[in-house]
Amino acid sequence: MDTVVEGVHFLAEDPADTVAWKLVATNVSDLAAKGAVPRGCLLSYPLAQDSSWNCAFLAGLRSACEHFAIPLLGGDTVREPAPSARSFALVALGEPRSEAPVPSRSGARAGDDLWVSGSIGDAGAGLAILCGQADADPPSRAALVAAYRTPRPSVALGVAIAPLVSAMMDVSDGLLIDAARLARASRVAIEIDLDAVPLSPAFRHAKGEDLAARLFAATAGDDYQLLFAAPRAQEPTLLAHATEHDRPLHRVGRLSAGEGLQLAYNGQRVPLPASLGYEHQS
Q1: pLDDT at position 78, please?
Q2: Mind listing the pLDDT tens digit for each residue in 228-269?
Q3: Contact (CB, 8 A) for 132 and 206
Q4: Can you give the pTM of this predicted structure?
Q5: Which residues make up the binding site for substrate (predicted)?
Q6: Residue 278 lies in a domain
Q7: Nearest to residue 30, comparing CAs of 116, 92, 118?
Q8: Is residue 76 marked as binding?
Q9: How far does CA 195 lie from the centroid of its chain?
Q10: Co-location of 80 and 124 in the same domain
Q11: 170 among the known binding-site residues?
């Protein structure tokens, strides 16, 4: 189950249909990281005072459920007290497609490579644009805002690669903090090459591609990409699945005996930033 809260996961001015899309997508992203096919979802929905907002939300919910092939099975509604921050919860149910063990965070091994899907930092740059903290040309701006408001996790890719990986999770709170969690759960050390973190052309237009930009991308969160560890021998098969499902995979680091997270840039060690990403509890 994932919950999205106004002011935390979405902005008060975000369109209602995109809030619904993001709610579904964040839950589907968890299924993708488990190699599970969506089977249905349950929604907890506080009815807004604004009926037009309710209608737009439900339209977005329908669109997202159709896109991710996850039917709405039921749920609960309550009357939203006014004024209050909007909050929505959804439970997504899925079924593994493989007889192989369901991937967890704790199976990674020393010697594995660390991979991510897609690009990193787009949603963070989109949020920065919406908050007036960054800007870009109109096409880049549209792409980055869409990455923030309407993420598109790849269930098909997650299902395809699940039998090949040692450990897998999604990138929701930031690449660095989620990689650190994977390292901790698997009791290994992870080194990430910031040069290898995949940045989209739109992100480069908005934020650049220097060390500061790469640290921003790696800590921003809301990417909803796959983060996984896999033996080097699986690389050809992984890349074949990436091509088949039109979602690139990028090797961004390596695992070794030890503990903790280390960063490198241009072949040199880089200190960890003060914040690795979003912390649910400070």
Answers
A1: 82
A2: 999 999 999 999 999 999 999 999 999 999 999 999 999 999
A3: no
A4: 0.93
A5: 9, 222, 278
A6: no
A7: 92
A8: yes
A9: 20
A10: no
A11: yes
